[in-house]
Amino acid sequence: MAIASRYPDVEIPELSVPQFVLAGAADRADAPALIDGLSGETITHGQLAAYVDRFAAALHARGLRKGDVVAVLCPNTIWYPVVFHGIAAAGCVTSPINSLYTAEEIAFQLKDSGAKVLVTISMFMDRAQSAVEKTPVDEIVVLDGAEGHASLPELLGSDAPSATVDIDPATDLVTLPYSSGTTGLPKGVMLTHRNLVANVSQSRPLAGVREGQERIIAVLPFFHIYGLTVLMNQGLQWGGAVVTLPRFDLEQFLRVIQDHKITRAFVAPPIVLALAKHPLVDQFDLSSLHSITSGAAPLDAALAQAAQDRLRKGADTGVTVGQGYGMTELSPVSHTTPETGLEPAGAGPTPKGSVGYALPNTECRLVDPATGEDSAPGERGELWVRGPQVMAGYLNNAQATANTLDGEGWLHTGDVAIVDDEGRFTVVDRVKELIKYKGYQVAPAELEAVLLGHPEIADAAVIGVLDTDSGEELPKAFVVRAPGSELTEDGVKSFIAERVAPHKKIRLVEFIEVVPKSSAGKILRKDLKARA
User: Fold this and answer.
1) Highest mean pLDDT (candidates 270-274, 293-297, 315-319, 383-387)
2) What topology is assigned to 435-531 in CATH?
3) Beta bridge partners of 188
4) What is the residue extent of each domain of the chain?
5) 357 and 348 in contact (C-beta within 8 Å)?
6) For the segment 14-44, what is each residue's pLDDT rounded down to a tens digit?
């Protein structure tokens, strides 16, 4: 049985992402759109629109055409939206790459996506150049300049005619982020212009937007769909200012909130933990904040309440700490906690621990994974979602698409949830095998493949185990040594650390005699979890 959103449907504009996000730029041309939180460098809304036009024109002049993929390997900067929307305005597709990826991981995404150009920064050039050697990439653009490569000023100085591209929002892709989905290796998630326009439009009725007045701190990475949609595009579409930080440093984060009068913070649970417990918090005036929303991983109810209580103490602020739910395949939001006073008629405050209500235009089902039937009222079940934010599918992977997105348009999230009588959802478990570490997805299969490349490892399996102190899932490897091997725990950890991004590192190692497997050869992770 489909569970409809408690909110009425909203209209989804038939616009491309740049048309939608930059629609009000002329009316607020001189207002700040993007502010570098460290240097104070600013791009106004009017400048942003002009820069996007020039970047798109420069790409067209270089021969890029509708549907071509441009990969972006870059930390948060005020120029990231210029690049993203310039690519989109040219009819091309952005494939954002995790800034922490190794050269091998970058190369995999470049090859799999078919990227023709890689946009990066000079600090990342060693990895970038190593990665492109055996890929279809024709050119590396270095935003801050490097000898022999085009730079951002060069592209923005282009006198080429503006790119004129006929974009169909419903079918044309705008971005191709990579996700492990519900299981397996990273896959290109095909998101259309309509997907992203819809998600910002759907989120608005629950947000209580103060048009043109919001200031959003952007420390979560734009290469992650959460940062891309919720912080960057949503913040710009609201007409406010997005204040960027290249990485999370607590003191810098707090100072930016104080000095730039930040009104909204979209964060992940480790930041909420710092806000609740770190002594530095008391040294800064955070009273401008009226909303903190956590996503990317589950937020403990007690932790959310502790952070809210601390920030409200001694301040004339009504800041609320809530959370939302989503995944890359949902562009990314399907559920969120509404601003106080915007709950559905007759509903009270959203309990801590809940991910809130389904967005407008969104239907949900809770399905018993064992039977495939809808769960009984009040019972838990796998969360299925249907709505305009649901991806088009996985790039060149029909089987993975069919495993996640059924013929009726339901996206099978792999997460187990319950819903209360008010229509508020709480995620309680995970069907899928993915490990969530600091908001990032870690695919056990990917780490297992790396481990099996070690000459002294005969077999291996990886699971996530809960660290009760941090609330994080830690990747743990169960390793079978090859005969005669004296491989140590540190040896396993260092082998992995040299080959994967930091968030994918193995944190715990246990040596075992045999990896438990089914008769079909599938790893019995439930047995390993019971052992752990």
Assistant:
1) 383-387
2) GMP Synthetase; Chain A, domain 3 (3.30.300)
3) 178
4) 435-531
5) no
6) 999 999 999 999 999 999 999 999 999 999 9
